[in-house]
Structure formats: structure tokens, C-alpha cells
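Feature request, filed as a ticket because there's no other form

It would be nice if the structure record came with a short human-readable summary line next to the C-alpha cells. Right now we just get the raw output. Example of a typical job, pasted below so the devs can see what we mean:
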Amino acid sequence: SSDLFYNMTPREFLSFVKSGDNKSADKNEFLCHEGDTTDRLLLILSGTVVIEKHSKKIATLSNYFFIGEMHFLTKKPMSTDVRVETPVRYLEWSHDQIHQIHQKKPEEYMKILACIGRDLITKIQQETAID
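Raw output as currently delivered:
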């Protein structure tokens, strides 16, 4: 794992990873579209995706970046399209799966939230560096 999960013990990290569903997608498939309200959180394990707005490339993300974290936190529809650039493997959790962690393992849930926050900060720093 990357330093994204710096705050988790190996056991917590493995428990979180195992609770997700392993998925994959090929080049030019969309993982999500602007306006989506599907309640799922994704974590890229390998490969790259392009974040697009009105078909214009905003950013490229690869290993150990979350997708759908803003929707998870705010419940607002997805604000961008996410298109696969090179074949990806990723983990997917439904919001229900994460809420179950919240109920059963509140400490692990708080650490997951901290990881999501760290992920967002990294993305914001990258975007301001691009501008």
C-alpha cells in the first residue's frame, strides 16, 4: 500500500481491502459519469484513469487514488467523468459496506475518513500546481 494508508495497521488495511469488491476495466471504459449518484467508493490499485469535464481532461490518477470520495462525503452527484486510460484494477465499496464498517469498527472507519481526506488534499495540491 502507499503512504495514503499511513494511519492504519496492516490488519486494518487488509480488513478494509478485503471488504471491497475486486473489479477491473479496460481502456476507454467509464468508471463513472458526471451526474452519477451511484453510492460507491472506488480505489485504484493499478492502471490510470483520466478525470474529464465536458470531454476536457482535468487530471490523470493512478495507484491508490480514490474515486467517488466527494460524492461519498457530500452526497452530491459526481461532478466529472472518469475514463480508463490504461486498463485498471480497482476496489469498490458500496456506501452500505462502508456504513457497516462505521457501525462495527468505528475506529477503522475514522481512519478510512482520514485517508479520504489525505487523498483529497493531495488532489487539491496537484490541481493548484497545475494552475
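Something like this underneath would help us a lot:
The chain has four helices and six strands.
Strands lie at 21-25, 30-32, 40-53, 56-61, 66-67, 81-94.
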